[in-house]
Design a protein that fits this description.
Strand 1 and strand 2 form a beta hairpin. Helix 21 crosses helix 22. About 35% of the residues lie in helices and about 15% in strands. The strands form six sheets. Strands 11-14-17-10-18 form a five-stranded parallel beta sheet. By secondary structure, the chain is of the alpha/beta class. It folds into three domains: about 170 residues, 2-Layer Sandwich (Ribosomal Protein S5, domain 2); about 230 residues, Rossmann fold; about 70 residues, Helicase, Ruva Protein, domain 3, CATH 1.10.8. The termini are far apart. The structure holds adenosine-5'-triphosphate, magnesium ion and zinc ion (ZN). Zinc ion binds next to loops. The site of magnesium ion has 4 residues, from helix 10.
């Protein structure tokens, strides 16, 4: 007897449809899985055998061969258990081989007692399957723990399964299984974050620069003495970014699903992510990859914020590796047989002290560092990374009395976000025909058309270069940031005040 059952594998953030054939033949009892399974798949044998028995079914005393097709794809993981078990039950006539068994898709790991365990990436699988013709309006049977994320996908039905026994009863027509109801994302940001910009007292310049960064999707570096509020400010950046669209919620959740990072009590990412990996994290952990490839922190930060607190502490290797994803907005990791591309479109925020002791430039406290020490500390940032940071934000230390005085509530995140959203909309409209999402992605070849400067602005830019000894690399950054500042005022032409403000955000570049 032969049974065919459909399942799904995961490669990167995509599902790959699989067909699983189970053949029962006469001969000495054996149980083989063929079709390039790795060790983790071969272990399915023991789980499936035990689960079938412990659910009260009979495991055949014959020659069982399971074939996973397509044969050229290396199969790994435990998510084919359920399909193999269903195939076995169908091939042995314990459930019907037609109907839902033929038309459905079965995904999930079995435990020895026949319960279904949650697996990673079901949203990604459901999304991919929904795009294939043969799978439209198909029912996917998967672990109850994964049903909410998968039910987000249109034109596919999800049936959450708790045990193999429940599923077999449903397929035999003696039991029922509910269909998961899609949970609509609630992108009302106020409900989703406990943080708000109005908790930050004073620091008006720093807040303003983060608003500009958010409005033009600019990477930023916050520098200032310990305790000045750098971490506090950075953590609140997602609250002023535009609310994610439904599609973005799917894109973000999909990556977290593949990485196994979704929490059972909140299966959807409704707020843009804020990721702050520790400087001791491994390169694979931050960039992605590894023996069993996983999205790294930069992909978990997709459509949100990646924050490196105490930037100079990170290993040079990691900082170098950020360069390509910052440019391409994706990261490619290679492994034995395939290359996998993960999305990595994030805003990068770094923080640092101005010098090793942290007090450099502070009028209250004396800096104990020697000029060579300061130079060495800052030089860790030189090169590829600092070249991709548009805005350098000074976050000065503030005195206690000043904090007291600034106790009045500042602007809420919602208010700032409304200006950011308006400005982003303007950019979307302007760059409709070119592949630019926001001002930060402009290239110098775009400047002539999209960044007209007034005569005074041009003069000021020229003067600034001479008097402040700015490096050439600062030039393009200043124009892009000035574009965003002008956009916040809805000004078509970039004026001298916009340039003047943008120049202020290059204070670390000055060579004096
Ligand atoms: N402007 C501010 N308004 C309100 N609270 C503040 C402000 N600045 C600092 N704080 C308080 O001080 C604490 C320390 O701030 P934070 O950790 O953000 O400083 P930091 O600049 O990141 O310091 P470090 O360089 O040591 O990491 C915050 O948790 C917050 O309670
Ligand atoms: Mg900090
Ligand atoms: Zn110092």
């Amino acid at each position: 007897m032969l049974a065919k059952v459909r399942s799904c594998a995961l490669l990167g953030i995509d599902g790959i449809p699989l067909e699983i054939e189970v053949d029962i033949a006469d001969g000495l009892p054996a149980f083989d899985i063929i079709g390039l399974p790795d060790a983790s798949v071969r272990e399915a044998k023991e789980r499936v055998r035990a689960a079938i028995r412990n659910c009260g079914f009979i495991f055949p005393y014959s020659r069982v061969t399971v074939n996973l097709a397509p044969a050229d794809l290396k199969k790994e993981g435990s998510s084919f258990d359920l399909a193999i078990a269903v195939g076995l039950l169908a091939a042995t006539g314990q459930i019907p081989g037609n109907g839902a068994v033929e038309e459905g898709v079965f995904i999930g790991e079995l435990s020895l007692d026949g319960k279904l365990r949650g697996i990673n990436g079901t949203l990604a699988m459901a999304l991919t399957l929904s795009k294939y013709d043969g799978y439209r309006d198909t029912t996917i049977f998967l672990p109850a723990a994964n049903s909410t994320e998968a039910a987000l996908v249109d034109s596919i039905y999800i049936k959450p399964v708790n045990t193999l026994k429940d599923l077999a009863e449903y397929l035999n027509g003696t039991g029922s299984l509910p269909t998961a109801k899609p949970l609509e994302p609630n992108t009302d940001q106020e409900n989703n974050s406990e943080l708000d910009f109005n908790e930050v007292r004073g620091q008006e310049t720093a807040k303003r620069s983060l608003e500009i960064a958010a409005a033009g999707s600019h990477n930023a570096l916050l520098y200032g003495p310990p305790g000045s509020g750098k971490t506090m400010l950075a953590r609140r950046l997602p609250t002023i970014l535009p609310a994610p669209t439904r599609e973005e919620v799917l894109d973000m959740t999909r990556i977290h699903s593949v990485a196994g990072q979704l929490k059972p009590d909140s299966p959807l990412l409704q707020l843009r992510p804020f990721r702050s990996p520790h400087h001791s994290a491994s390169t694979a952990g931050i960039i992605g990859g590894g023996k069993v490839p996983r999205p790294g922190e930069i992909s978990l930060a997709h459509l949100g914020v990646l924050f490196f607190d105490e930037l100079p502490e990170y290993r040079r290797e990691v900082l170098e590796a950020l360069r390509q994803p910052l440019e391409d907005k994706v990261v490619t990791v290679t492994r034995a047989a395939a290359t996998i591309t993960y999305p990595a479109d994030f805003m990068f925020i770094g923080s640092m002290n101005p010098c090793p002791c942290g007090n450099y430039g502070d009028p209250q406290q004396e800096c104990r560092c020697s000029p060579p020490q300061i130079f060495k500390y800052r030089s860790k940032l030189s090169g590829p990374l600092i070249d991709r940071i548009d805005i350098q934000v000074e976050v000065p230390g503030i005195k206690y009395e000043q904090l007291e005085r600034d106790s009045s509530n500042g602007e809420t995140s919602a208010l700032i976000r409304s200006r950011v959203e308006k400005t982003r909309e303007l950019q979307r409209e302007r760059y409709k025909k070119i592949k630019v999402g926001a001002n930060s992605a402009l290239r110098s070849r775009h400047f002539e058309k999209y960044c007209p400067l007034s005569r005074e602005a041009r003069q000021l830019l020229h003067q600034s270069f001479q008097s402040l000894k700015l490096s050439m690399r600062a030039h393009d950054r200043i124009i892009k940031v000035a574009r965003t500042i002008a956009d916040l005022e809805d000004a078509d032409t970039i004026g001298s005040s916009h340039i003047a403000e943008a120049v202020q955000y290059r204070s670390l570049d000055r060579r004096d």
